[in-house]
Design brief:
This protein is an all-alpha fold. It is built from 13 helices and no strands. Helix content is about 80%, strand content about 0%. The protein is globular and about 60 Å long.
């Protein structure tokens, strides 16, 4: 039985690893340069991902969605986020590192991996998380970051703090008008409408969505090849271990306490074991804090995930 589980895990992970390796080789050879990375990222996030997410959710009815597995993920993320702030103190840097400890690469790596490993049923569970992942984590992080910035500015200049409601409103707007949650919400609304997609349009969206996984995984490899880890590898390793191992362990414990079993719990545990998502790097850039450490953490977490995901998937299959 264990051998069959391990074979299933390896057969699901191997295409992911090979596509990342192809991208890494292309990056090392200089076939894809640093100047093309931003354009490829825009292609993935603004065109291919929305097509896949919309089409995946366009046949899902609300009654099929279960929020208990997602609750286990977010409770664990909230505990780790709060623990990181308590450990490092209330600041922009601590908030960005707390986000790195909890924000999974659910789109570029997660969709491809879960689709291969657990099929359409697993994808519905994952996309329920994806639909809320950025909305909850990025909105929360934005609110905390804006409060930290306001606190720092008030401390240094004595200026008045901006109203909390304005900070929260801006954070919610940025989180909802985003290429990940927006097509998921649109797809769900379309599914509830009972309308049928015209065949030529459906095929076009399917072709665009089908290109997402290979292009996204190759892009991960290119990014790894072009990103130096340098002197931050020790701190990056700590961040990676928290994200890749502590997060899924906590999700498993909380999920079992909530009475979860089987595929929903397995998908949430594997999703929490995914490496740090690229949005964390964007946050570090935007708020100009811990940029080198976060970049190194994303690289180390992704490389380490090739080992840790294998172990987590094998153990999660027994939950």
């Amino acid at each position: 039985m264990l051998a069959a589980v391990n074979a299933s895990v390896l057969s699901s992970l191997l295409p992911v690893v090979l596509l990342i390796a192809v991208g890494f080789f292309a990056g090392r050879r200089g076939w894809v340069g640093g100047g093309a990375v931003r354009d490829l990222s825009n292609l993935i996030f603004l065109l291919l991902a929305p097509a896949l997410l919309f089409r995946s959710m366009s046949t899902v009815h609300v009654e099929q969605l279960s929020l208990r597995p997602v609750a286990a993920y977010f409770i664990a993320a909230g505990l780790i986020f709060a623990g990181t702030l308590a450990w490092r103190g209330f600041s922009r840097t601590a908030t960005v590192l707390a986000l790195a400890n909890t924000y999974s690469n659910t789109v570029m790596i997660g969709i491809a991996l879960i689709g291969l490993a657990y099929g359409p049923e697993g994808m519905v569970v994952l996309l329920t998380l994806v639909s809320l992942h950025s909305l909850v984590l990025l909105t929360s992080a934005t609110v905390v970051l804006e409060l930290a910035v306001a606190h720092e500015q008030a401390a240094t200049s004595g200026s008045a703090r901006r109203p909390l409601l304005r900070i929260v409103g801006r954070a919610l707007r940025h989180a909802i008008i985003h290429p990940v949650p927006l097509p998921i919400i649109a797809g769900l609304l379309f599914a509830q409408s009972g309308l049928r997609m015209p065949e030529p349009i459906d095929q076009t969206i399917a072709l665009l969505g089908g290109a997402f996984s290979p292009v996204a995984l190759v892009m991960v490899g290119v990014t790894l090849a072009l990103t130096p880890v340098g002197m931050h590898w020790r701190g990056a390793l700590v961040q990676a271990l928290i994200k890749n191992l502590v997060h899924p362990l906590l999700v498993a414990v909380i999920g079992l306490a909530l009475g979860l079993r089987g595929l929903p719990l397995t998908v949430m545990v594997v999703a929490s074991a995914l490496p740090i998502g690229a949005n964390v790097f964007l946050f570090s850039q935007r708020y100009r804090t811990a940029e080198d450490l976060v970049t190194a953490s994303v690289v180390v977490s992704t490389g380490l995930a090739l080992v840790t995901l294998t172990a987590v998937m094998a153990l999660a299959a027994r939950l």
